[in-house]
Amino acid sequence: QMGSRAPANGGASTSGATSSNDVNNFDDPPCDADVFDCVQITPEHIRSNGTVHTTPYAGIAELVDNAVDSGASSVRILYKGQPPNKSCGNYLLVVDNGQGMNRSESLNTIMIGYSTKKGNSDSIGQFGNGLKSGSMRLGETLVMCTKKHIEFTILMISLKYLDTINNHKCYVPCLSYELIGSIWQPMHLTTESDEKHEKALKIILQYSPFATERELQEHMLSSLSGLSGTSIIVTHLKRLENNKYEMIPSMNDLVIKCRPAIEEPEKEKGRKKSLDEDPSEEEEMFLSEYLSELYLKPKLALYIENRKVNVKDPIRQYLEPRWAYLAKGGLEMFLEREKKGLEAEILRKQMLFEEKSRKAERILTEIQGSRHGVAESKALNRDYRIAMEEVTEMKHAIVQLTQNKSEKFKPKEKENATGASIKVHMGIDVLNRGNPRVVFYTNGRRIQTLPLNKKSANAFRKVMGVVCVIDIPSTLLPTAQNREGYETSSEVNFLLNKIQRLAQTYFEFADSKFKSNDFWGQFGYCTRAYPEDYRGTEAERMLYTMIGLRRQCAKCLEFRTTEVPPDYRAWVSLDIEDEPFQCDGGCPAKSNEERGDEEIKELNMKGKPTYYGDSQPVSSAKKPVAKLIDRDPSPRRVLSTTASRVSRISSTNRTNSSHRNGSVAHPRVVVPRDSTVPLSEDESPPPTLGRSQSQLAAATPVSYVSSHRSTHKKSE
């Protein structure tokens, strides 16, 4: 609640400037609880926070992201039916074996925007909002059970409960236990907190799937059997207008399906359904397919209904993988923003480090100052241990951020040819050549997939089947809070145009077989290169015979290249494994030969013309059309005279036809495809780094145009 109480100290105004000494004085902060009330979140804010994600997949991905950031090596997703004599309905379980949280850390998770991972390029989460937004997208009640050492904490955020009390404040029941042997001992109990513990337990049991305290404790023992971990329980799952659950298990209990909330009368794929049929059936998709390429370098095993997800290698699953640096031109603004963001985050963490250090010193002084009872001494020692863990964690974060800053922005003795530091990996997707695309990752997590330019058959042939994968640090290009896009679309468009030119260069220098109809014909494609082509039924077998079948070991989590099994189609098509793959011989270390085979080579751009810049001259056999109209050097004049040239085409052609014997020589006038930059069929415009935001937005290849004719007419 925003307080309206006047400030103390004689009602002095707070609108004046505050000196830096006052701001940095932690012993006497300028704003504290004795002077002002603080802003609190409301149930309405939590409910609206769950609408930032468009699909349930994104909500589940947020919960998995938190597990990855906590160092988990295993995440299990389970869908459970409604327990008897309970009104919570079906519920979802997301269990990981990460580092877990204590009571203090658990209570920090309910703070909107609280995050210790901001600025860390190794962490996915940056906003401190994923747990709330992800769980509230799936259902209306979140129960978090977490374990760290011998401490168990249960925390609940329930919109159902908050709606019943009809209060504009957000109350969060929280329980803490210590497990000593087989005895559950409630923690932090005094005469007053004993009553609070009983009330919190009663509310949690009312809105959770558990009927008794014993059932709750048994769930924590079974799901959190390791030294640490977290179990997320989401109840009161979202339903559609027809009162059916938005998420349902599949027929064979392998995966979880999703029904869309917005139905379309006709689908792009498949037949048109009659009015008597449920239109949502055709839109269902497998959760395992969504999670299979969620991470660029997956270091965890994902399980759905106790079956392992077939996690894929996002780069090495394509033919002829290569990498190249993204040209640095125009990225100066991104780099400067990244540098300032890192400096601000280091300063913020240094202030938090000093604050937490003083807190630990105060607790230590209290321990050494006077005698305490057994229970009080135990509580003080526990608080001191937790405070020192926070100090150590903050110190480690400062060191890591400082190292990242020094490595990224130190003067390099030997830079690459383009002066860039962002890698783009490329490959040929022969199973889906009609969908050339760019997959954007941030801190190793997939954010967005955008199509490459294929407006015409000629443009499509330059990037046929090309897939570009780029991993951008969150400090360089901030993501949106829902992690389904980026904050600034114009910056994404700018990067997309640069990657488009790099993709054309890659395809130009790729093996010549990718430009042969014979090569594509063996995969079941037609001879003409259009996006509507389809692949044959044996295409998968041929592809995996060429590149090998890469599978992730459930034990060491490394990818290994294996032989194609006879039942490869069942393994590939389901995106889930009945029996998890494990390495032979107890997961031996990869040999130098194996690592050499897995190494992706740099794109070699020597000896051929390139679309990537001006480093290579254009051959005389492929001169740009602009060379044929040198008599109009002014760009304005070229633009203004385009219409008149169009009107002279027919007369010019007739004149040339009448003088075929060579009696009179007339120059041939060629009308450019673009009214501003004349191009030939085989040339692409050079990089233009000084575009405005409106021009960049207009250049984004999001909507497809069947030909250049409509674009040419509009430009005229």
Describe the 3D structure:
- The chain has 716 residues and is an alpha+beta fold.
- The chain folds into four domains: 43-248, Heat Shock Protein 90, CATH 3.30.565; 319-325 and 420-598, no CATH class; 332-409; 622-715, no CATH class.
- It contains 21 helices and 20 strands.
- The protein has a ten-stranded mixed sheet, sandwiched between helices. Strands 15-14-16-13-12-20 form a six-stranded mixed sheet.
- A hairpin with a 2-residue loop joins strand 3 (139-148) and strand 4.
- Helix 10 (332-369) runs antiparallel to helix 11 (374-409).
- The chain starts with 19 loop residues before the first helix and ends with a helix.
**Gross CATH architecture of the largest domain:** 2-Layer Sandwich
Number of helices, counting only DSSP H or I runs of 4 residues or more = 21
CATH class of the largest domain: Alpha Beta
Q: Write out the strand line-up for the largest beta sheet, numbering strands in chain order.
A: 6-5-4-3-7-2-1-10-11-19
Strand residue percentage:
15-25%
Low-confidence stretches: 1-33, 260-282, 413-420, 609-716
What is the name of the CATH topology of the largest domain? Heat Shock Protein 90
Number of domains: 4
Derived structural class: alpha+beta
What's the main sheet like? Answer: 10 strands, mixed
Determine the fraction of residues in helical runs and give it as a percent range. Answer: 25-40%
**Average pLDDT, all residues:** 73
Distance between the ends: 58 Å
Number of strands: 20
